[in-house]
Design goal:
It is globular and about 70 Å long. The longest helix has 19 residues. The strands form two sheets. Strands 8-7-6-9-10-11-12 form a seven-stranded parallel β-sheet, sandwiched between helices. Strands 2-1-3-4-5 form a five-stranded parallel β-sheet, sandwiched between helices. It starts with a strand and ends in a 9-residue tail after the last helix. By secondary structure, it is α/β, with parallel strands linked by helices. Helix 5 packs across helix 7.
Length: about 325
């Protein structure tokens, strides 16, 4: 049984171990795989694990030994599921491993906007406080979260955890969701109401034809100019140019993101030049603890497949 990991570096840059997989077959690990290398590297594989390397119909049709694809993530849009199903190839993912880490990143971004701790830390390393005529100073108005309205698009595992934290801050929480029974403290609202009343809007929905560019010129115009938008979901949930324009024109107070439409972004992405746009490089999922869970579940998925009892199947 040959097992090939096409892009193992992001999940395991060396601080974790693939050794358990070595007991299950001949293991080959690549840190990164370019699209042109995918078929050659997976040619003899029975099992392929991928994070962001695409396994579309073209690739799957050229891999005669392939029986199993394990996605090292929750989202599995990198795999052509119908093509895999047609071949009888099992595809699995790793659900809910990063819930705590992503929720934490949402509030890291939010608190960065409301409190600017890194801004002041950098200034004070350069001596500004030591030269200040008063005992304190501030460059931006501070905002208390208590009493503000926190809007959430999507109430899956992450959305619900984010809601719990927002409630702990004393915020009013409302959500756009298809769920009928909501956890205590969360009010179900329409998209129009969510947009017009939220002081903070956090995106936690899947990327579909309906949600692509959910945040666009029209929806941004419904929002408060003091609002903060946070995207830790999928990059294309927002229209990059529309958000950049809203920031530049003062129609949006801040935009925070861990994901962008194209990753890595091109240097001319209009959002990168906006002073009130704040980015982390798609690392909300990547805490040590979350990656430990990721590998444990991914390896468990392979073991279950080999035992004829596949779990976390998405194909």
């Amino acid at each position: 049984m040959k097992i090939v990991i096409l892009d193992g570096y992001s999940a395991n840059p060396g601080d974790l171990s693939w050794k358990e997989l070595e007991t299950m077959g001949e293991l080959v690990v690549y840190d990164r795989t370019a699209p042109a290398e995918t078929v050659a590297r997976a040619q003899e594989a029975d099992i392929v694990l991928t994070n962001k390397v695409v396994l579309g119909k073209k690739e799957i049709d050229q891999l005669p030994h392939l029986k199993y694809i394990g996605v090292l993530a929750t989202g599995y849009n990198v795999v052509d599921i119908p093509a895999a199903r047609e071949r009888g190839i099992i595809v699995t993912n790793v659900p809910a491993y990063s819930t705590e880490s992503v929720a934490q990143m949402v509030f890291a971004h939010l608190l960065n906007v409301t409190n600017r701790t890194e801004h002041y830390a950098q200034q004070n390393r350069q001596g500004r406080w030591t030269q200040n005529p008063d005992f304190c100073y501030w460059d931006f108005p501070h905002m208390e979260l208590a009493g503000k309205t926190f809007g959430i698009v999507g109430l899956g595992n992450i959305g619900q955890r984010v809601a719990q934290i927002a409630l702990a801050f004393g915020m009013k929480v409302q959500a756009l969701t298809s769920k009928t029974a909501l956890p205590a403290g969360i009010q179900k609202v329409s998209l129009d109401e969510l947009l017009s009343t939220s002081d903070v809007l956090s995106l936690h929905c899947p990327l579909t034809d309906t949600t692509r560019h959910l945040i666009n010129n029209d929806t941004l115009r419904q929002m408060k100019p003091s609002a903060i938008v946070i995207n830790t979901g999928r990059g294309p949930l927002i229209d990059d140019q529309a958000v950049a324009d809203a920031l530049a024109e003062g129609r949006l107070a801040a935009f925070c993101a861990d994901v962008l439409t194209e990753e890595p972004p091109k240097a001319d992405n209009p959002l990168l030049s906006q002073p009130h746009a704040f980015f982390t490089p798609h690392i909300a999922w990547a805490s040590y603890e979350a990656r430990v869970r990721l590998l444990q579940v991914a390896i468990g998925n392979v073991r279950a497949f080999l035992n004829g009892q596949s779990v976390n199947v998405v194909s």
